[in-house]
Design goal:
- By secondary structure, the chain is mainly alpha-helical.
- Helix content is 69%, strand content 4%.
- It is built from 14 helices and four strands.
- It has helices spanning 26-31, 36-52, 59-84, 92-109, 114-139, 143-166, 180-187, 201-218, 220-230, 232-237, 242-268, 279-289, 301-320, 328-352, and strands at residues 5-7, 13-15, 190-193, 196-199.
- The longest helix is centred in the last third of the chain and has 27 residues, at 242-268.
- The chain is globular.
- The two termini are 22 Å apart.
- The relative contact order is 0.20.
Length: 354
């Protein structure tokens, strides 16, 4: 698109440059990246534990860190997209457990191939995500209220149905059922690289980061997500399907919960119905540390991955350093505050150089 000439007061044409084709310096591009603050923090934490914990730099230790990060990162990615879209999901933690319980109990009670249970779990979990999005867009209630209600309902249903069907607070083992081995290969297997074992969840995590980054940066849906989170009314006025976008984002969180739930089930072949409570805060923390704004409209999938990596390095670094793990929550809270302050400073610098 060419620049449009304007006329000065004397009537002479004056050429202006379209702001969309202005050159941007590499420094400005770097400062504008939402994950910059978390990358700096991750590097600092890595260097710190490299000196503080003797075994931190071992290949097996790094594999453990990546596994811990991936179990958080699989959920942090869709939660980050939802936050960019301007919403929260407080039911994400227990939805992981619900997904695992549905898969396990359907397979056991129906004496079906475990792959059938996995499929039914996917459909039901996506339906719960769609329900969250539908209730949000139809009622106009804040996402905090809508998903808090879903959180309480799922918490009660997880415990109530498990005790009603299985008589205890945990499901029956499905390790001897047909299809268990093949499902475990997909969701909970281990692969070896250079003599070091890695969990398949790392591949799921990296795949979701790549997919989410492509959606945000290369598709129309990505533009809709940023627009809906930045200014919902303005986005709706220019034709953005805000309701469909937010329902889709909640279904994305549900999809991540399904993957995490199947990993939980096929790692241990049974599920405790009370698991998952409180994990939703960890997913949100990872997204915020990665640069997502609570107000929406800003963030990245890569940032959420870095936030999850920070969580993994801190949780396992404390163990490798042989410190009291009771201090973990303190370090997690300190990281949240420091990363948020650093992200705010980076944004101000980016705006100042714009």
């Amino acid at each position: 698109m060419s620049a449009t000439p304007e006329r000065t007061a004397a009537g002479a044409p004056h050429k202006t440059t379209d702001e969309r084709i202005l050159r941007t310096s590499p420094l400005r591009k770097l400062l504008a990246r939402p994950e910059l603050g978390s990358l700096v923090g991750a590097l600092a934490v890595f260097v710190f534990f490299a000196f503080a914990a003797d075994g931190f730099l071992r290949a097996a230790s790094l594999s453990t860190v990546l596994y811990a990060s991936s179990t958080i990162g699989i959920m942090a990615v869709p939660v980050a997209l939802l936050m960019i879209g301007g919403e929260f999901d407080l039911s994400a933690g227990v939805l992981v457990t619900s997904s695992a319980l549905i898969s396990s109990m359907f397979s056991y009670q129906m004496t079906a191939n475990t792959r059938a249970g996995v499929g039914v779990s996917l459909l039901v979990t996506l339906a719960i995500g769609a329900f969250n999005g539908f209730m949000l867009t139809r009622t106009g209630l804040p996402s905090f209220i809508v998903t808090l209600g879903t959180f309480l309902m799922l918490t009660g249903m997880n415990l109530g149905f498990t005790k009603l069907i299985d008589g205890t607070v945990s499901t029956k083992t499905i390790a001897d059922m047909e299809g268990f081995t093949s499902a475990r290969d997909v969701f909970a297997s281990t692969f070896t690289v250079g003599g070091v074992d890695f969990k398949v969840t790392i591949l799921w995590w990296l795949g979701l980061v790549a997919l989410a980054s492509w959606i945000l940066l290369r598709t129309r849906a990505g533009n809709w997500i940023f627009a809906a989170g930045g200014n919902e009314d303005a986005a709706r006025a220019v034709g953005v399907p805000v309701a469909k976008t937010k329902i889709g984002l909640y279904m994305g969180v549900a999809f991540g919960a399904w993957i995490s739930g199947q990993h939980l089930l096929f790692s241990f072949d049974a599920v405790q119905s009370g698991e998952g409570v409180g994990n939703e805060l960890i997913y949100i923390i990872a997204a915020v540390i990665g640069g997502c704004l609570i107000t929406g409209g800003y963030g990245s999938a890569i940032g959420s991955a870095v936030g999850a990596l920070l969580f993994g390095m801190t949780s396992k670094g404390i163990v490798f350093a042989e410190w009291n793990p009771d201090w973990f929550k303190f370090f997690l809270g300190a990281m949240l505050l420091l990363a948020t302050l650093l992200n705010a400073w980076v944004r101000k610098r980016a705006e100042a150089t714009a």
